[in-house]
Specification:
alpha+beta, Gamma-B Crystallin, domain 1, globular, 32% strand
């Protein structure tokens, strides 16, 4: 009888240990937070005005039809070294903001890094570049500032950058 009890207790302990280990392996620290934003100006530690560079999920023929935006988009102002997002420790808490396409339409809610097909620069004074790699590296495409008449022309990304966009900055 003793050996039967010992086996039952051992099995119960092993099962309990496995359950605790499984929970610990999948649990995130209580001091980490992640948010999805469609504009880098929505990140608390970034100081900027409204986004001037618009990255669309679809190519320009689908993104804007008859003057109406049909595609989800993300807007950026200033330098964005990684279209995946940005993180910062605030005390002992890590806060991460992921850039996603929003505002309805095709691609809404998708992560924007390596998913954009077209761009429009609505900045009155700033030129931009979009890069293949994070950290402003690799193939890039130049987007001139807005025209004096306020036209924000939408342009398809070149084939090397379509769905391969990882960073952007003032040019």
């Amino acid at each position: 009888m003793r050996s039967a009890r010992f086996r039952t207790k051992s099995a119960a302990c092993a099962l309990s240990f496995a359950a605790v280990a499984a929970v610990m392996a999948t649990a995130q620290p209580a001091n980490a937070a992640e948010f999805a934003v469609t504009d880098n100006c929505d990140v608390p530690w970034i100081t900027c005005s409204n986004g001037d560079l618009w990255l669309f999920y679809n190519s320009k023929d689908i993104a804007v039809q008859n003057g109406v935006i049909k595609s989800a988009y993300t807007t950026f102002y200033g330098d964005v070294s990684d279209h995946w997002g940005t993180s910062q420790y605030q005390g002992s808490s890590l806060t991460t903001y992921r850039y996603v396409f929003g505002n309805g339409g095709n691609g809404n809610g998708q992560y924007m890094k390596n998913n954009a097909a077209s761009v429009q620069n609505c900045a009155p004074d700033d030129n931009y570049r979009v890069y293949f790699n994070s950290g402003y590296g690799g193939t890039s495409q130049y987007f001139a500032k807005n025209s004096p008449f306020g036209d924000c022309n939408i342009t398809n990304l070149i084939s090397a950058l379509k769905n391969n966009n990882a960073s952007s900055h003032f040019a």
